[in-house]
Q: What sequence folds into this?
């Protein structure tokens, strides 16, 4: 399916990040009952990035701290200051499929709210030594991590074979090295339709085989699955996927997109979310995770935000769910 809001956001980001323009389609998982997920863009309905007149100033004073929780984030590219304020009590990091923050949060709104920005090198279009140097210079100060290519096994996302991604990876490494950033691998997912590779496990195996000696500090993954898992746990299929990743790879994981992709009601999505969060918070191999998304137009009942700066019932559940203390 076409994600109009994401296409609009990436069009704006292209001038900033020189990313490959795409009209992205949803991911599909081979789990029973799974439908289409959404990945690789804003997942928003075009909320204004202008400051809300009712939101309080974030200028001056120390940034808000996060005394509990370092894992929880959000994948979203339409933030306003009010949106970030609403999520900031529990969300400690965010990314927007680009290497620079949203205009509505520049220069340091997110920093003053204590929410870390994580840049991404979305795809391989035009990525060479000169482009890598430019990106490294544009990444804002205060960043600690760099996300790799977004679903390169998808024809309608970064669209790179494993060998192509491996050949370009030294440029991604150069960006990370120039800024002293830890590096997250290409983020993969089960793919249906136009695919470089349908199986994310096989794609990563081929990437690492072709990129021997390359630096990767974390494995990036996306998971969209049904929310009627076996037994009482509604996130069972998501958990099963992560347990499989754990047996295949020995690095910690960043789950940078996840949601139930067939929730027939808010109650189903909320039950899935709460079961998933309980697992993710307590699983030591999960370094960070990010819900998809703020206002997704391609995953039903998954919006964390309603009006500008207003949490939905699901968003309030995401903010309120228990978190383990930072280690």
A:
């Amino acid at each position: 399916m076409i994600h109009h809001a994401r296409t609009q956001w990436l069009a704006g980001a292209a001038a900033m990040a020189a990313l490959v323009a795409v009209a992205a389609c949803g991911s599909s998982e081979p789990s029973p009952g799974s439908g289409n997920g959404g990945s690789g863009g804003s997942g928003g309905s075009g909320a204004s990035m202008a400051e809300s007149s009712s939101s309080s100033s974030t200028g001056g004073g120390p940034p808000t701290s996060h005394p509990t929780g370092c894992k929880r984030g959000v994948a979203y590219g339409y933030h306003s200051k009010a949106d970030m304020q609403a999520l900031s009590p529990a969300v400690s990091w965010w990314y927007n499929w680009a290497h620079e923050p949203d205009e509505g949060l520049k220069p340091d709104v997110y920093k003053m709210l204590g929410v870390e920005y994580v840049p991404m090198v979305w795809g391989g279009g035009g990525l060479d030594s000169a482009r890598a140097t430019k990106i490294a210079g544009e990444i804002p100060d205060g960043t600690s991590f760099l996300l790799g290519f977004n679903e390169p096994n998808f024809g309608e996302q970064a669209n790179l074979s494993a060998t192509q991604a491996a050949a370009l990876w030294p440029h991604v490494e150069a960006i990370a090295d120039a800024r002293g950033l830890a590096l997250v691998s290409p983020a993969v997912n089960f793919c249906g339709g136009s695919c470089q590779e349908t199986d994310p496990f096989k794609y990563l195996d081929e990437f690492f085989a072709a990129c021997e000696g390359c630096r990767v500090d974390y494995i990036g993954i996306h998971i969209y699955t049904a929310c009627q898992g076996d037994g009482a746990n509604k996130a069972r299929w998501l958990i099963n996927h992560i347990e499989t990743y754990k047996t295949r790879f020995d690095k910690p994981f960043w789950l940078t997109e996840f949601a139930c992709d067939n929730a027939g009601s808010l109650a189903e999505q909320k039950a899935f979310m709460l079961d998933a969060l309980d697992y993710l918070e307590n699983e030591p191999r999960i370094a960070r995770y990010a819900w998809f998304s703020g206002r997704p137009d391609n995953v039903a009942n998954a919006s964390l935000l309603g009006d500008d700066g207003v949490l939905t019932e699901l968003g309030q559940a995401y903010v309120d769910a228990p978190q383990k203390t930072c280690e």
Q: What stands out?
A: The domain at 26-44+68-320 is CATH 3.20.20.80 (TIM Barrel).
